């Protein structure tokens, strides 16, 4: 394909990391939104680059037997659930292939490809999200709530999201109606005027209680007392209502300033035996059901006996640190975000866990200092951002030489790339266990277990 609008017939070979179909045309990679492996399609080029092209389906010559009708009326528009048209088991198989292909690419013929286990999926791959962040807009003098159209800042009106817990959608629709009745000014991003930008709702799967955050562009929130009163009356399960002020022109939903308007300061969620107390801005896994599956896999990989020292290198609010503390001698958590460490310490106290210690800082700087003072971690757990570990942290981990590294990853490419580095520094990859944290999307989480070679030889 040489020009935009060129049309060709293409066979889709596999699924790409963003859920698009991937085909090849005389060595050129072609990404096709909405196409599935095994399908033959006529496509039209929408974008041409040196090494690849993007295209859209004009006509299906034959369709995959695993193609189904998506449950959501707007899923193909919002860009969130890119795989609703794919049978769930096929989604899981495709995600395993994405992880496998990443290791084949980065390890190549030089290193043995590790065992990539079958993806751990959900019995019910719907209504799993515990949090909704919904923008508001005005259309034809009415307030609408919805999701952004893929690749734009235009809001598609939505009454129900098939991956949200249903109580979240009910609350958001009810709050929207109250906002409309009270004539609260809606923020207009073009004019940079108005007040209410987003409604954020989070539900505890353990208690079914909800936390609501009203995100505003200014400190002012018209009719705030009446708004809070009506929300509390209409939704008895809402136990906390807060206002977050975000005056920045940014894709980030929340700003730095939050105040409680009514009710509790925190929402409590329980995963396994651990209670987690969540402030309005606390980071927490969006899928509590699979969070427990993921953390059990980390525990299984660690095989702690109660004698080990564990380092949680990107501990966030300490959720995984607290999970592992019950099986370890000591757990140290390091996180660069100070507010997250406050949450971590709060939750350690809430659960009466005394063998976990949290520090604010960049782990690539903190770890070498601890090692110089004689600290030795038997197990290092890492759960980095999509960009991976980075050279400095890889060096720090190599110098620390833990017996085990447990790498939790949301990006198969950087996972494989970092594992290659660790292999070359003396580690074996025992296996990779993918976990489906976000059904109906192309995202896949993985837990990789690496062991120091000299340990295996003793």
TrEMBL record:
Domain of life: Bacteria
Regions annotated as coiled coil: none
Residue span, TRAM domain: 1-59
Residue numbers binding S-adenosyl-L-methionine: 285, 314, 335, 383
GO molecular function: 4 iron, 4 sulfur cluster binding; rRNA (uridine-C5-)-methyltransferase activity
PROSITE patterns, per the entry: SAM_MT_RNA_M5U, TRAM, TRMA_1, TRMA_2
UniProt-annotated catalytic positions: 410
CDD domains reported for this sequence: AdoMet_MTases (cd02440)
Keywords: 4Fe-4S, Iron, Iron-sulfur, Metal-binding, Methyltransferase, S-adenosyl-L-methionine, Transferase
NCBIfam families cross-referenced by the UniProt entry: rumA
Family (UniProt): Belongs to the class I-like SAM-binding methyltransferase superfamily. RNA M5U methyltransferase family.
Annotated protein name in UniProt: 23S rRNA (Uracil-5-)-methyltransferase RumA
């Amino acid at each position: 394909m040489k020009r935009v609008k060129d049309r060709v017939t293409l066979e889709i070979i596999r699924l790409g990391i963003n859920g698009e179909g991937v085909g090849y045309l005389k060595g050129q990679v072609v990404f096709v939104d909405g196409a599935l492996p095994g399908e033959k399609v006529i496509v039209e080029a929408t974008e041409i680059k040196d090494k690849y092209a993007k295209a859209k389906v004009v006509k299906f010559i034959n369709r995959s037997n695993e193609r189904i009708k998506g449950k959501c009326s707007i899923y193909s528009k919002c860009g969130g659930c890119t795989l609703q048209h794919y049978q769930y088991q096929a989604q899981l198989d495709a995600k395993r292939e994405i992880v496998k292909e990443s290791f084949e690419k980065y390890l190549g013929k030089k290193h043995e490809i590790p065992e990539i286990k079958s993806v751990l999926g959900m019995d019910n791959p719907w209504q799993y999200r515990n949090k909704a962040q919904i923008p508001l807009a005005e259309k034809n003098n009415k307030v609408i709530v919805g999701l952004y159209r893929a690749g734009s800042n235009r809001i598609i009106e939505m009454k129900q999201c098939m991956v949200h817990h249903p109580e979240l959608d009910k609350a958001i629709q009810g709050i929207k109606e109250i906002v409309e009745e009270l004539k609260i000014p809606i923020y207009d991003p073009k004019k940079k005027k108005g007040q209410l930008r987003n409604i954020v709702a989070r539900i505890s799967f353990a208690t079914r209680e909800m936390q609501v955050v009203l995100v505003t562009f200014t400190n002012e929130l018209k009719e705030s007392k009446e708004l809070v009163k009506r929300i509390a009356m209409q939704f008895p399960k809402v136990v906390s209502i807060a206002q977050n002020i975000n005056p920045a022109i940014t894709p980030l939903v929340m700003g730095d300033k939050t105040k409680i308007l009514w009710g509790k300061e925190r929402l409590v969620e329980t995963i396994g035996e651990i209670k987690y107390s969540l402030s309005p801005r606390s980071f927490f896994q969006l899928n509590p059901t699979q969070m427990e599956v993921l953390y059990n896999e980390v525990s299984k990989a660690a095989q702690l006996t109660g004698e080990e020292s564990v380092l949680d290198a990107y501990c966030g609010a300490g959720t995984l640190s607290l999970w592992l503390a019950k099986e370890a001698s000591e757990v140290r958590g390091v996180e660069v975000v100070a507010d997250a460490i406050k949450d971590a310490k709060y939750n350690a106290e809430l659960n009466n866990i005394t063998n976990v210690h949290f520090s604010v800082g960049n782990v690539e700087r903190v770890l070498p200092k601890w090692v110089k003072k004689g600290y030795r971690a038997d197990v290092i757990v890492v759960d980095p951002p999509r960009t991976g570990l980075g050279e400095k942290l890889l060096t720090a981990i190599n110098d620390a030489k833990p017996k085990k590294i447990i790498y939790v990853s949301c990006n198969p490419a950087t996972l494989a790339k970092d594992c290659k580095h660790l292999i070359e520094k003396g580690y074996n990859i025992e296996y990779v266990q993918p976990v489906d944290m976000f059904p109906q999307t192309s995202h896949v989480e993985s837990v990789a277990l690496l062991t120091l070679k000299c340990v295996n030889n003793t």
